[in-house]
Amino acid sequence: MGVTYKYFGAPDGATAARVPISMRPEELGGDELGQGMYTKVKPETMAAMVLTGIEGIAPSKVPPLELVVLHPDYAVVRLPASVVEPLRKADEESLGAAAFIWSTVPDRRGPRDAFVIYQMLHEWQDFARRCEESGHQLYCLVWP
Question: Is the separation of the CB atoms in 38 and 3 below 8 Å?
Answer without folding.
Answer: no
